[in-house]
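Below is a filled-in request sheet from our internal design queue. Each sheet records the structural input a requester submitted and the sequence that came back. We keep these sheets so that new team members can see what a complete request looks like end to end.

REQUESTER: design group, bay 2
PRIORITY: normal
MODE: inverse folding
CHAIN LENGTH: 462
BACKBONE (tokenized):
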């Protein structure tokens, strides 16, 4: 009996990871098409294009990607054939499970539509390529959105009487489902500001149309303040999305403070979140952009600046951010602040890596090689290495950026005396403001404080 139970337990643990992997595998959706798919004319394409909204509606079980390219045609003799773009190759590499094909608007232009007899053949050729992929995707053919241009090269009459009938014929031949985005956008002239491209309200209708085709259900959906899939974290709305191929999260407070202040973690979202939870309660947005494994490299700095600019431009966050560097996140936080002091109100560091030779150090061979590769340097270059936070404090001190830091005096992973202690001493020598809180007998974990009031007070005062 005991042997049987042990065998059952062993099987449960052996089989569980595979089962979980299958459950977590996302259904991949590719939206291909022209500028309407891409989101041209929208102030925030990443949030409001129809593929972005479709992803929000479908939720975390789907990976919906936008493969729209402005001006493209399905016609291989057109002025900008989609099959000649690099994005077309990206679709093939993506190996989607579902594809929405939305062309015809640019094909309808006079210079392109003279090749109308090739339209069905070119669409068929595209379908044949996608159908032959290993992923064997389900393909939907979309009818073009309504065009409200009265005088121009693109005419809705050509779309209605020329393009749409041909798409229907191809769909019938291949037994593919039609997604009628033309009907979905009919009577919405006021939501096409330039008479061709939808605003976010019309994009939502297009997304609803695609959602109905996929699920067989209609769904009421409210336009979001932020991109990505909306969930809950600690009772607050959390938005999960990607930015330049890296994971990002925004957690919104119930009542945002005027000016939208925010605290930004470049690593380890949700770990030891006492400070983040307190800041949310006070009206701060908590933002995470995952740069943890880039070792504060120039690439991470560039990505961080692009992300910061997007937060300011598209979501109206305060131009002064609170940086929060946990562990290796300290590499990015300090160096980015040193390069952008005018963008930083203060820095909160927690058991931070301040010297790459201390962590990962040459003793962790794999991580050390990963660091060298990320920085694109060789071992012999280390004698002139200038990327350590302890060496980049002058701009912060000159800009009078205040720092509060927490660390355990018994940290065996990122030793205090090799990292924060040196940083604090050098910052004070530069007459920089820094407050250090030492946790006696504490190792690298746990981070933060059980009662984070001193950290909160420091941030609010600066």
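RETURNED SEQUENCE:
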């Amino acid at each position: 009996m005991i042997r049987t139970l042990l065998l059952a337990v062993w099987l449960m643990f052996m089989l569980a990871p595979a089962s979980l992997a299958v459950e977590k595998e996302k259904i991949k959706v590719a939206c291909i098409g022209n500028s309407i798919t891409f989101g041209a004319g929208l102030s925030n394409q990443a949030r409001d294009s129809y593929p972005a909204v479709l992803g929000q509606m479908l939720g975390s079980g789907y990976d919906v990607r936008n493969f729209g390219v402005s001006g493209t045609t399905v016609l291989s003799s057109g002025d900008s054939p989609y099959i000649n773009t690099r994005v077309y190759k990206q679709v093939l590499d993506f190996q989607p499970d579902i594809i929405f094909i939305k062309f015809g608007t640019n094909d309808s232009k006079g210079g392109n539509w003279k090749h109308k007899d090739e339209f069905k053949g070119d669409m068929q050729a595209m379908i044949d390529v996608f159908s032959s992929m290993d992923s064997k995707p389900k393909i939907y053919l979309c009818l073009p959105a309504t065009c409200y241009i009265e005088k121009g090269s693109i005419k809705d009459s050509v779309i209605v009487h020329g393009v749409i009938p041909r798409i229907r014929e191809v769909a019938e031949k291949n037994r593919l489902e039609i997604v009628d985005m033309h009907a979905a956008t009919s009577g919405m002239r006021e939501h096409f500001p330039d008479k061709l491209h939808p605003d976010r309200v019309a994009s939502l209708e297009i997304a609803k149309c695609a959602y109905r085709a996929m699920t067989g259900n209609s769904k009421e959906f409210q336009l979001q303040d932020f991109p990505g899939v909306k969930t809950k974290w600690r009772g607050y709305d959390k938005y999960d999305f990607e930015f330049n191929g890296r994971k990002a999260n925004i957690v919104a407070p119930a009542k945002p403070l005027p000016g939208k202040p925010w605290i930004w973690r470049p690593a380890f979202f949700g770990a030891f979140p006492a400070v983040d939870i307190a800041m949310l309660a006070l009206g701060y947005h908590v933002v995470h952009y995952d740069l943890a494994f880039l070792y504060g490299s120039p690439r991470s700095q560039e990505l961080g600046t692009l992300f910061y600019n997007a937060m300011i431009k598209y979501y109206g966050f305060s131009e002064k951010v609170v940086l929060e560097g946990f562990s290796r996140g300290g590499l990015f936080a300090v160096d980015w602040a040193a390069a952008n002091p005018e963008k930083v109100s203060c820095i909160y560091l927690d058991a931070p890596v301040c010297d790459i030779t201390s962590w990962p150090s040459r003793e962790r061979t794999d991580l050390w090689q990963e660091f060298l590769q990320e920085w694109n340097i060789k071992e012999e270059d280390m004698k002139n290495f200038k990327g350590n936070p302890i060496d980049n404090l002058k701009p912060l001190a000159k800009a009078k950026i205040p720092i509060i830091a927490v660390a355990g005096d018994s940290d065996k992973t990122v030793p205090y005396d090799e990292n924060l202690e040196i940083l604090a001493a050098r910052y004070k020598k530069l007459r920089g403001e820094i407050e250090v809180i030492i946790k006696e007998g504490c190792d690298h974990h746990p981070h933060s404080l059980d009662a984070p009031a001193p950290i909160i007070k420091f941030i609010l005062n600066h």
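SHEET NOTES:
- The chain has a mean pLDDT of 94.
- Residues 79 and 369 are 47 Å apart (CA to CA).
FILED BY: M.R.
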